[in-house]
Design goal:
Mean pLDDT: 81
Helix content: under 10%
CATH class: Mainly Beta
Strand content: over 45%
CATH superfamily: predicted glycosyltransferase like domains
Structural class: mainly beta
Number of strands: 7
Radius of gyration: 14 Å
CATH architecture: Beta Barrel
Distance between the termini: 29 Å
Largest sheet: 6 strands, antiparallel, barrel
Strand order of the largest sheet: 2-3-4-7-6-5
Number of helices: 1
Number of domains: 1
Amino acid sequence: MGDPKDWAEKRTSKRIEVSLRLLVRGVDKDGVPFEDSTESYNVSREGASFSTTHELKMGQVVEVVIPRRPLGRQTTDFETKGEVVRIVPKGEHEWEVGLKFVGPRFRTYVSESA
């Protein structure tokens, strides 16, 4: 499990606390496929964190879909893959997971020098 202080020092972009709907797909630590509808705690260009009831492994890669609200003609969802870089137990059968995007990066619309 990753130490949150170590991960904070490695961040290369500012995290924004925001609750966005996420669809996460992959396999759990036992190799059982899952699809989880959840919400983010925060996001950045580089990654996201969320809670899940599926126990994952450090270093594994999952698929992430962030549905976009229709804005004019653009209704394409943001899709990427993320590597599990942090796992924090939150209770019985619940974990907070931190991902580092290994596919397309998320556009945050906030100055990252702030």
